[in-house]
Amino acid sequence: MDRTDQDGVRCRRCRRVRSGDELDRILWCEECVAAERGRAAWWGRGLALAGAGLLALWIALGIRPGDRFLFLWAIVVVVAYVLGGRLARELVFGAVRVRNRPGARALEASGGSGE
Q: Which of 2, 53, 87, 111 is the 20 to 30 A CA-CA neighbour of 59?
């Protein structure tokens, strides 16, 4: 149970006691949300870079654009990176929120495995 005897509620990620106003609807504090958003952004950039690299490889080897259209295909790759990054970031953050492992950040801070 996440409730405490004090005037507060435990954050489900870091297990620190906070006031009810400092937690969101699934009982995460602002620090935990910011930390997981940062981690999701890192994963989003990595996945977007991999996807844009595969797209650029496919364009270069499969389509083989001429010199006149090379700039337009470069724009397609950049747009795929930006949109793919946003999509991947939100999907990763959503997966972490759905999984919602209690005490995960508390275990990470103490060096535990989390499982």
A: 87
Residue 95 lies in a domain: yes
pLDDT digits (tens, 9 = 90+) for 36-45: 999 999 999 9
What is the number of domains present in the chain? Answer: 1
- Pairwise CA distance, residues 93 & 47, whole Å: 13
Structural domain contains residue 104 = no
pLDDT tens digits for range 12-52: 999 999 998 999 999 999 999 999 999 999 999 999 999 99
CA distance 37 to 110: 21
